[in-house]
């Protein structure tokens, strides 16, 4: 199922590294925080706004900001088989096995999901085939 409306993304290969550093002084009963990946779509490229630490099984929030003047699409292997909640501009969608989203110019899409599998997870704009990247999720275990 493709969700149409206000969402989309941009191009050029981007590698988001998920390196698990684990909490150093956190009490064992404390819950692990979510991973936040900030991507801006600018000049037909995905731009990572800050370094990211991630590991499998930790809730992930992907924030997509389209600063281009055209609509972009976001589709990814990370959307397959997991429950995804998408929010933006007063609209929310959720479900499993979503094909992707569109982000209109000047709009922001927030995706909430949990990536259970370590490895490479590609993403791309289905409207602009040259726009793509990947999320690399690495499980380094606990120290």
Provide key terms for this protein.
globular, six-stranded mixed beta sheet, 143 residues, mainly beta, five-stranded mixed beta sheet
Task: Walk me through this protein's architecture.
- The chain has 143 residues and is mostly beta strands.
- 0% of the residues lie in helices and 44% in strands.
- The chain is built from no helices and eleven strands.
- It has strands at residues 15-18, 35-42, 45-48, 59-66, 72-76, 83-88, 91-96, 101-103, 108-114, 119-124, 132-137.
- The strands form two sheets. Strands 3-2-4-9-6-7 form a six-stranded mixed β-sheet, with no helix packed on it.
- A hairpin with a 2-residue loop joins β6 and β7 (91-96).
- It is globular and about 40 Å long.
